Amino acid sequence: MRSGLWVFLGLCLWLLPAGVGRPEGQACAQDAGRTEYLMVGYTSKGRVPGVAVYRNENGTLRGRWTNGQAQGRILTETAVPQSLTDGIEGTYETTGTNPDGRLYRGKLGIRKLGDKVYLFAWTNGETGVGILAGQVLVVGYGEQPGVALYALKADGSGDGGWTTLDMQGGIGREQFYGGGGLTATHRTKGVSPTGQPYEAAVTITKEGNAYRLAWSTGEVGVGLLTTAR
Fold first, then answer.
1. How far apart are CA 28 and CA 225, in angstroms?
2. Residue 11 is inside which H or E element, if any?
3. Residue 53: which of 146, 139, 162 has the closest Cα?
4. Which whole number is the average pLDDT over 74-88?
5. Structure confidence by residue, pLDDT tens digits, 8-35
6. β pairing state of 127-133 and 136-141
7. How far apart are CA 12 and CA 3, in angstroms?
8. How far apart are CA 169 and CA 155, in angstroms?
9. Which pairs count as long-range contacts for 200-204, CB under 8 Å and 24+ apart, including other chains?
10. Which residue among 5, 90, 189, 204 is least enclosed by CB atoms within 10 Å?
11. In sequence order, what DSSP letters do the residues of 40-105 get, joined into one string?
12. What are the sequence ranges of the domains in the chain?
């Protein structure tokens, strides 16, 4: 899937965790009107995570994607609607580029699971779960996928929302902090979609143009960094 987002600044406020204590600092990393976001697809250890980020342009979804086997490369996909039932729900024809440079075509079905949460199913057998924020869709895909998106602070920490397919459309909250920069080992604190608080740790490393994430709870992820103006 793809990268290159055009995220609106209002997403920052939507991402802020409710009821989760925050370390001191700015709500979002901003520099001359820019805000940075880390978009993550994740799964359990031993599986291959994938992430796709789309912008809705008058019904056509244009985005970037990468996965745990793309070695940090960011690729593209366009999904053109064929039959829409409500909002972005419906079927799409997709075209894109694989990591080996070959072009591909396929179909994509999108179904709503919750207020901002959607189920994705591609004809290549991949399934995903996505969060809609304005005109931007962030999708985690693969086996037992999850998705997270974080608004970054100036010190490299972040606040965000996350969900998985089995959360029935609910969205949890998580912050990571204390690493002294984005690529570091951070403490995490969050609340699950069912309201249960938790604490853990996550290590973030850079790979090519993408990021790798590994949580102490066993999940692994791949992320795209996006700057919005």
1. 14
2. helix 10-15
3. 139
4. 95
5. 333 443 443 333 333 333 344 445 556 7
6. antiparallel
7. 18
8. 31
9. 202/176, 204/176, 204/179
10. 90
11. EEEEETTS--EEEEEEEETTEEEEEEEETTSTT--EEEEEEEEEEEETTEEEEEEEEE-TTS-EEE
12. 10-222
Closest CA to 49 of 136, 123, 148: 148
Q: Give the three-state DSSP class for 167.
A: helix
Which residues sit opposite 157 in a β-bridge? none
The one-letter amino acid code at 113 reads L
Amino acid found at 64 = R
DSSP 125: S
Residue closest to 38 by CA, chosen among 196, 206, 198: 206
Spatial separation of the C-alpha atoms in residues 147 and 216, rounded to whole Å: 17
pLDDT tens string 183-194: 999 999 999 999
> Which residues 6+ apart lie within 8 Å of 116 measured at CB?
131, 132, 133, 171
DSSP state of 17: P
Contact between 176 and 157 under an 8 Å Cβ cutoff? The reply is: yes
Query: What is the C-alpha separation between 51 and 45, in angstroms, rounded?
Result: 16
Q: Which letter does DSSP use for residue 142 in this model?
A: S
pTM for this one? 0.85
Which residue's structure tokens are 């103006």?
Answer: 229
